[in-house]
Amino acid sequence: MNGAYGEAVSRREASSGGIHRFVVFGDICGSGTLNMAEKELHRTAMYAAFDEAYASVGVEPGTYHQEDRGDGILAALRPDMPPRLMVGRWIDTLYESLRAHNTGRSPRLRLRIGMNAGLVVQDRHGLVGRAVDLAARLCDSPTAKRIMAEAPDVDLLVVVSDWLYGNVVAEGGRYVEPDHYRRARIRSKETDEAAWFHVPRRAAPPLIGPEGEAVPGGADAGRRVPGVGSGAGVGPSRGDGPTPRTGGGNRTYNVKGDLLDIHGNTIHGGFTGIRKDAGAGEPE
Question: Which CATH architecture has domain 19-198?
Answer without folding.
Answer: 2-Layer Sandwich (3.30)
